[in-house]
Amino acid sequence: MTAVAPQAVHLTRSANEAAELTQLEPLAQRVSQAMQQLLANFTKGAFTISAGTANAARYPEWRIAQNPFGAVLRYRLPKRGDEMLVHLPGFLICQIVDVYYGGTGNVQARGEFSSAEMRFVDSFGSQLAPLLKAEIDPDPGSVIEYTGAEIDLLQLNWPRSRDAIVVQSFFAESEKIKPTPVGLILTTDTVRLMENRRSADENPVGPADAAWSERVRSAAMRVKFPARTVLTHCNVPFSKMLTLAPGDILPLLLPAQVPLIVAGRVFARGTLGESNGRAALMIENIEKEMDQ
């Protein structure tokens, strides 16, 4: 890989005025704190991470604008069928590893990672996964999986369905190192999921709403549905129906279980019997679809 300058240029289309991006501001602050705490394990607090702005872009445009010397950490959201990325410029990775081994972070620009730098990338990526999970998708039933790092950014293609992205920027810096951009790349579907969850958290069901919901539930429980049972049926050819006359006999076969039909669908099945001198149906089982 050809050696390149230490800084990369971001080509994104500003969308700070978009309402759906405003909810990223508190998230960005929490993620920056999580990144800084994690980075402190490698640099003993030499670097600080601050949150920048969120911008909308198209993935191909963002990718082509980045310095090819870098690493992209890939995270999969299997429950959502989605993916997110964290972009670390290569020059920043070299600085962090240099500080870790006692250096000052003053490194020369180059185009390939050492084995030590690759170990840092994988370690940082795997340890960042649970932190992102806690901030982005706190649903107990979901996970965020670190699936590895890509170091050839120009070859990293996303499906066309993920072309619309939101890039949340962060800046890593130290006393002797200028701010270097770090990017969290989210699909618009993930951003929409986060916005829906934020709205639900900010508008919980209050006492008045709970009372109204209880009244609605109580009223719904009193609604009566017509229910009927079909003892048996038979199929008669049209030709025979034309010749039917009083006194003709049609053989019938009673089933072992009789269906109970509600609103045109089989709700349950049971056996015929007698209760208090009247014919009755004893329920044997509830249909699975209706039970769910």
Automatic annotation (TrEMBL):
It is a peripheral membrane protein. It is found in: Cell membrane. The keyword Nucleotide-binding does not apply. FliM is one of three proteins (FliG, FliN, FliM) that forms the rotor-mounted switch complex (C ring), located at the base of the basal body. This complex interacts with the CheY and CheZ chemotaxis proteins, in addition to contacting components of the motor that determine the direction of flagellar rotation. Signal peptide: none annotated. It comes from the Bacteria. SUPFAM superfamilies: Surface presentation of antigens (SPOA). Residues 221-286 form the Flagellar motor switch protein FliN-like C-terminal domain. It comes from Sphingorhabdus contaminans. Keywords: Cell membrane, Chemotaxis, Flagellar rotation, Membrane. This is Flagellar motor switch protein FliN-like C-terminal domain-containing protein.
